[in-house]
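Reviewers asked in the last cycle whether our approach scales beyond single polypeptides. To address this, we selected a multi-component target totalling 554 residues and predicted its structure end to end. The input consisted of the following lines:
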Amino acid sequence: MKQFSTFSLKIVFIVSIVWFVNACSDDFELNNLDETLFVRHKNADMPAYIRGNSSEKVFLITLHGGPGGTGLGFTGKAFEAIEDAYGVVYFDQRGSGNSQGHYDEDDISIDLMAEDVLALVKVLKRKFGDDSRFFLLGGSWGGTLGTATLLKDQSNFKGWIEVDGANNPAGLYDLYLETFPTTANTQIALGNSVDFWEAVLALVAQVDPVNNLDDFLTLNGKAFEAEEKLFEDGFIASVENGIGGNETFFVYNFLTKAWNSGKIQSIFDDQGLFQTVDFTSQLSEIRIPSLFISGKYDMVVPIASAQTAFDAIGSTSKELRIFERSGHGPMFTEPDLFANTVIEFMNTHK
Amino acid sequence: MKRHIIILLLCSALQLQAQGGADGTAFLDRTEFKVGYSGTIFWSNGIAVGAEYLWKEFKKTKERRNAQRTNTHQFLFNGNLGFATNFASKTDTGGFTNFGVTWRRTNKKGKQFSIDLNPLGYYRSFLPETYRVNGDNVDRVSFPGRGYYSPSLSVGIGKQRKGKFRSGSYFNITYSPRFNYNARTLPTFSIQYGFRFNFKNKKQ
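The resulting structure, written as structure tokens, was:
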């Protein structure tokens, strides 16, 4: 019995050592990456989840929406397909998801968060080599942040993919006031969800014509409701086919995620993100190949925003793709088309 | 701030030890050790160990429904050390320690209700591979993670097993904010379920 115990202890010890050594190992397979590392920059520690096939050392860095979304929020059928072709870097931005740190809220700015993205690029180069190539993809608020990043330094990127991106957050208010009545009148004429759309018209008539935060938040909330109605009435495809499984539920502590999201949003609301920030006049400075993807029925960042950005961008190689059956989440509603569009763009410009 | 917290924690630990130091038996009489699960089930799971030193004890008798009920009220010093991780990611792993006072009421059936107030608390996150970026310099960080002042408040129920080596069980819900987490204070909640042990009872 004693011999058996000693033998068992030895086995447990050896297995523990092997496990520990493996856990500490830096080895990775470029064609099947599943790495998590943190970027420490200006008092924040921000996780980057690096996945997929980076055998060519081509990475797609993704910037989530929000502010206050989660890096892995993009995962699903579309990004699985992209991961098969290229490395994908999902990044929890400062104050979002599983990011942590010590800093003052006065220090938070779009400028600083753009520097965080450039810091991420430096870390990826250190980890995977200076010959690594990067594409930047921003969804919704990620479009704002991505634009700010490229205006700081676009030399690191082979291309820019903006998905329902808000490069003019201050302009969204007016876009809501234009888009809501147009869509509402069309839907009422078709006899779809008439009560809802009449309420939308009443709301538009009731809000202050001058951009203000309270009314903006009301309209923004209504935009999400409107997309639900458009889904129910068959204009927007179901997300069921494209959305990820339960993985992100277990990765992000619900309370931490919600708290982080609420705080970073309130900080940017207080700073006047949706009243003052507009990059439209600077878009001509961005000259790298650019792809704009917008859902035809995007009520949250209406399609006109993508058209304006497409017209204003300084790139000679640029493309605007409208997804006919999508709202604010084309990667979930039309995942195959989304993946093919992104991969094709990366294939062309890598 | 961090240095002051560590000094306070050490002083508190030394004080606990000193109170039982003169007579080892008395210390064991008055001390229970505990070990149990600590976590949130879905997002973090771990283990916590601790000790509780009986400071004051008194009985209160109340008349209720024509019967006398006697409850024991205790004030205890307590200290805890724990570790929890999220098995679904490498981004939420940490260790914690906290010290403070427990008030516990035990009825004649051994059912317990307790409140722990631990003003001295510290949480330290353990991060995976981390790189510090300063200008164009990128350096790998050794033992990456961050420390946070993290006091705690627990409310719980339990069951006493008088005179037994495994002297009781407990189930607590704990609120432990992490101060200066990102730009503000992160509220965290967790549950603890475990058993208490009295080594003096083992000898009996």
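Chain A has a mean pLDDT of 92. We regard this as preliminary and will revisit it once experimental data from Aim 1 are available.
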